[in-house]
Each structure stands twice: as structure tokens, then as C-alpha cells.
């Protein structure tokens, strides 16, 4: 038994690591790092988009929502923000509420001229 262990130890210590193996390992690690950074940036951008839509929903008037369902949208956006798949809800909110309402919740200001007196 000890002879087999000694032979296995000798075989293991006689393996030579070439520079090609080191370069390949370095390339793989660098590629994985770049892959991680790309997905980190994408995930952060989606999280910020979800947060932006939740803030927009909270500040928008009830009349801007179809069927006056502001509370439902706010709950969906906040739960989605906490779970991690809220960007899907935020994307649906963006096209169904924000785009249809004109993009802003601020009331339009008139030009200050009164044309009804003429």
C-alpha cells in the first residue's frame, strides 16, 4: 500500500506545467472576469431602470393610469425590485403607462395668453 502511494506521489510530482497551460488558464480567467463585468453592468442598468419606473409610478397622478390602478402598479414594481425580475414589470409599465401618458406626470403649463376673451 505504501509502495503504491509513493509511486503515485512520484508520478504526481513529475508532471511539468508548461507556459501554454498557464497562458490558457490566464485567458480563461480573464474571459470569465469580462463576462462577469458585462453581466454586472447589465444587471445594474436593469435595476436602475426598475427603480426609475417605481419612482415614476409613485409620483404620477392616479388619473394617468388606465382603470385608476396606481396601487397595483406600485406594488408590482416594488415586489419586482425586491425579487430581481422587476425589469419585466418595469418594461411593461414603461410602455403601458409612461409612454401613453406622455412621458411626464407634470401638468402642462399654458402660455399665459387668454384667447377666450376675443
Task: Report the end-to-end length measured between terminal Cα atoms.
Answer: 111 Å
Number of E-type strands: 0
Helix and strand composition category: mainly alpha
Determine the number of helices (DSSP H or I, runs of at least 4 residues): 4
Whole-number radius of gyration?
30 Å
Shape call? elongated
| Proportion of beta-strand residues | under 5%
N to C succession of SSEs: HHHH
pLDDT averaged residue by residue = 79
Sheet having the most strands: none
Helix content: 55-70%
Low-confidence stretches: none
Give a quick summary of the entry.
With 118 residues, the protein is mainly α.
Structure characteristics:
118 residues, mainly alpha, single chain, elongated
Question: Can you offer a commentary on this structure?
Answer:
By secondary structure, this protein is mainly alpha-helical. It has a domain at 46-103. It has four helices and no strands. It has helices at residues 2-13, 19-59, 70-83, 86-98. The protein is elongated, with a radius of gyration of 30 Å. The termini are far apart.
SSE layout:
Layout: H1 2-13, H2 19-59, H3 70-83, H4 86-98
Amino acid at each position: 500500500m505504501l509502495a503504491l502511494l509513493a509511486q503515485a506521489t512520484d508520478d504526481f510530482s513529475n508532471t511539468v506545467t508548461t507556459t501554454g497551460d498557464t497562458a490558457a488558464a490566464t485567458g480563461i480567467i480573464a474571459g470569465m472576469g469580462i463576462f462577469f463585468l458585462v453581466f454586472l453592468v447589465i444587471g445594474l442598468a436593469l435595476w436602475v431602470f426598475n427603480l426609475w419606473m417605481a419612482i415614476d409610478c409613485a409620483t404620477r397622478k392616479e388619473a394617468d393610469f388606465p382603470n385608476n390602478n396606481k396601487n397595483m402598479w406600485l406594488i408590482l414594481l416594488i415586489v419586482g425590485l425586491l425579487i430581481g425580475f422587476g425589469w419585466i414589470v418595469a418594461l411593461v409599465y414603461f410602455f403601458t403607462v409612461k409612454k401613453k401618458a406622455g412621458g411626464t406626470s407634470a401638468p402642462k403649463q399654458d402660455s399665459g395668453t387668454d384667447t377666450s376673451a376675443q
